[in-house]
Amino acid sequence: MPGYFISPSNEIIKVAHLHINTVFEKPELFGWTEENLRSVFRKHSEKIGLEGKARREILSEIIEKGFIRIRYRERAMSFTFQLSNYNDQSKAALKMFTIKLLNGDLGWRPEKNTGFRIIDLNGNVLTGNFYTLSDLVNGILENQRPLPIVLPMQPKE
Q: Which sequence spans correspond to the domains of the chain?
């Protein structure tokens, strides 16, 4: 399953298997040190690389710094783009990434009708309709605002 990060400076970073492993392989690219990463796993009493609370904390902080996390979901035949700020800069970064992807510049070429969804750090879907990579390249996001996030009602005390 291909995965990627897009850095705040629009550098595309390939993920071989797991995003957290890529962070451990090149912590400086993400503003971390290996010791900082290890300390987060110790804080949560988790084994290094485990997909638990430490991984979520680390990846959330990286995404909050402006990185976009990308995963191709093979079963769904679609991409998930996870980001912190749904703005003109992130939309332009996604368009740039998708053009490179569809041109085969990233080592493989999915179908133009492959779907995608954009989610925030909490997993809320920010794009309302089912769009394709072709739609993204053709500017579908340019005038779109994120969907309002509806939070569940809190119980009264």
A: 15-64, 68-137
- The number of beta carbons lying within 10 Å of the beta carbon of residue 99 is 13
Residue 77 CB neighbours (<10 A): 12
- The H-assigned helical ranges of 1-130 are 19-25, 34-43, 53-64, 88-102
Cα gap 30→20, rounded to integer Å: 11
Those residues with Cβ within 8 angstroms of residue 109's Cβ, 6 or more apart along the chain or in another chain: 101, 102, 103
Nearest by Cα to 65 from 90, 43, 48? 90
Q: How far apart are CA 73 and CA 147, in angstroms?
A: 22
Q: Which of helix, strand or coil describes residue 15?
A: strand
Minimal CA–CA distance to 55: which of 12, 18, 85?
18
Angle at 44 between CA 41 and CA 45, to 5 degrees: 80
Tens digit of each residue's pLDDT (9 = 90 or more) over 63-119: 999 999 999 998 888 999 999 999 999 999 999 999 999 999 998 999 999 999 999
Q: Report the pLDDT averaged over residues 32-55.
A: 92
The CB density around residue 134, as the number of other CB atoms within 10 Å, is 14
